[in-house]
Amino acid sequence: MRSLISFVGLFCINLYAQASMSIPQMVDTQCISCHSADNYTNAPMMSGQNLEFLEFELFNFRDYVRDHEIMNQVMEDFTDQEVKEIASYISSLSLCDSQALVDEHPEADLIKGKKIFNQSCIACHNKDTLSVGPVIHGQKTIYLEEAIKSFQSTWYEPRPSRINMRSHTDMLSDQDIKDVAAYLNEQQLCK
Q: Quick one: 2-97 is in which CATH superfamily?
């Protein structure tokens, strides 16, 4: 039932936002409510991410290439131009605003997490928004763990980046995932 209520609420927000708000107003009041440091959902922090990455992901949600119960519904009614404007605005925000709160990591080995990151992730995921992949430093631990596991699962096969990520994620154990997620969560984007 909660899922249905969330869907109806987000659908109404989407229609209202499209009809009465500018893209920046909509992003600031609607999108950032889930994609912010003080929200304890598994939604990633998005401010300041690479423009091409944001466009790619938002179009994938809108076109149901990437399956996500909430984001598919939120994005489905936006035009190509609106999706580009949303991505452009989010990309223009400060990457410093993408810093999640640091979680407690009592069962994680941060040294091992750093080693895994440096061996397998850093080439595409560094703090430079010009990298191939998104900046994953400072993200929420729960988001990072779920994102890595999603690349390991078969239901994510249609996602184009699954092919690129397979060789980096499929060999990771649950403990490895905890370790790298904890390490990344503790990395500061801006000081």
A: Cytochrome c-like domain (1.10.760.10)
- Of all residues in the chain, the percent with pLDDT exceeding 70 is 85
Q: Do 42 and 123 form a contact (C-beta atoms < 8 A)?
A: no
pLDDT band at 108 (very low <50, low <70, confident <90, very high): very high
**Predicted pLDDT at 90:** 96
Burial (Cβ within 10 Å: 0-12, 13-18, ≥19) of residue 40: exposed
- Residues of 86-113 as b/e, b for ≥16 C-beta within 10 angstroms? bbebbbebebebbbbeeeebeebbbebb
CA-nearest of 181, 90, 107, 89 to 138 is 181
* Residue extents of the structural domains in the chain: 2-97, 110-185
Q: At 8, is the pLDDT very low, low, confident or very high (cuts 50, 70, 90)?
A: very low
Gap between the Cα atoms of 87 and 177, Å rounded: 29
User: What 3-state DSSP class applies to 54?
Assistant: helix
Assigned CATH topology for domain 110-185: Cytochrome Bc1 Complex; Chain D, domain 2 (1.10.760)
Q: What is the pLDDT of residue 191?
A: 74
Residue written as token pair 């596991």? 149
Task: Find, among 27, 20, 15, 18, the residue nearest to 86 by Cα.
Answer: 27
In the 8-state DSSP scheme, what is residue 64? T
Q: In this structure, what DSSP letter does residue 37 have?
A: T
